[in-house]
Recover the amino acids of this structure.
């Protein structure tokens, strides 16, 4: 008679590993959907502003102090880490971030996870909050659900 | 795009925002929603593979989150456990000087996983007594 082998295993995980858990993008999608459905879009917007004001305050301060190169560095780090297809360039005094394939949307589609159609609003609200607190302005033009956008940043 | 490496602070601020709207109950309602709508992978693995499925699920997530932890599964003895020596989530919130952890932050791990595992016939225990030091212990047992 065949007996089923019982699993007995121990695994030590280390904090030295690279920290990159892209499934978190899916949890953010769920959070946006939850806030939209339960409290309304204004609350989603207020939450994102509150988060950006608090968490990205050091980035806003650096932007105010040192200018657009700080945002350029930030996007370089973020999109490189997540393997995004993107490019950055300056158009006159404006910084342009062209995202050809958003790594968050690409990942969620790849693993078949829910992507809220309002996902890109998180970019719009968070960017606007970071910029406003530094005396800068921005725009974000995106094709809904396509994972492509053009973000532009300039001094007010 | 909010980077996935910035998700934990975003999550933490969401809990605070919900708490401000309606107290802890509003936060728990969100955790229950997230458990029901986002934890399908754990549910599926635990349902199909039992304790080995739990081991597979957390091997993946905790590796990507760069956790300092020891996981152990013993199907003969009927348990799966995690000894979290330094939680990457709480650790991050403690480390960042300009943010503070939501008072009940670590309790999301109780609601999220218990709600998936108990209906599948597992018992779920979590010891959060040292969670302010980014340490906790989880014990999952086959209960039927």
């Amino acid at each position: 008679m065949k007996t089923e082998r019982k699993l007995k295993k121990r695994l030590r995980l280390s904090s030295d590993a690279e920290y990159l858990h892209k499934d978190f993008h899916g949890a953010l999608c769920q959070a946006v959907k939850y806030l939209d459905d339960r409290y309304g879009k204004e609350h989603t917007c207020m939450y994102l502003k509150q988060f950006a004001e608090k968490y990205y305050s050091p980035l806003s301060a650096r932007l105010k102090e040192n200018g657009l190169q700080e945002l350029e560095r930030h996007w370089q780090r973020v999109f490189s880490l997540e393997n995004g297809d993107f490019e950055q360039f300056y158009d006159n005094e404006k910084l342009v971030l062209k995202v050809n394939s958003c790594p968050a949307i690409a990942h969620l589609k790849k693993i078949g996870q829910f992507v809220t159609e309002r996902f890109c609003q998180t970019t719009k609200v968070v960017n606007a909050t970071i910029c406003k607190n530094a005396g800068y302005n921005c725009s974000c033009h995106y094709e809904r659900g396509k994972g492509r956008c053009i973000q532009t940043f300039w001094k007010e | 795009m909010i980077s996935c490496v910035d998700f934990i602070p975003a999550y933490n601020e969401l809990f605070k925002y919900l708490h401000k709207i309606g107290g802890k109950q509003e936060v728990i309602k969100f955790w229950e929603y997230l458990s029901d709508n986002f934890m399908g992978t754990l549910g599926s693995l635990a349902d199909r593979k039992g304790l080995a499925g739990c081991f597979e699920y957390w091997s993946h997530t905790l590796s990507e989150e760069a956790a300092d932890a020891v996981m152990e599964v013993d199907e003969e003895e009927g348990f799966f456990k995690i000894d979290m020596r330094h939680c990457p989530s709480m650790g991050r919130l403690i480390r960042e000087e300009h943010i503070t952890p939501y008072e009940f932050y670590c309790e999301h791990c109780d609601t999220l996983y218990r709600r998936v595992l108990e209906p599948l016939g597992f018992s779920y225990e979590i010891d959060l007594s040292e969670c302010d030091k980014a340490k906790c212990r989880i014990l999952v047992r086959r209960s039927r």
Summary: The beta strands of chain A are 8-13, 85-91, 94-101, 136-143, 148-155. The mean pLDDT of chain A is 94.
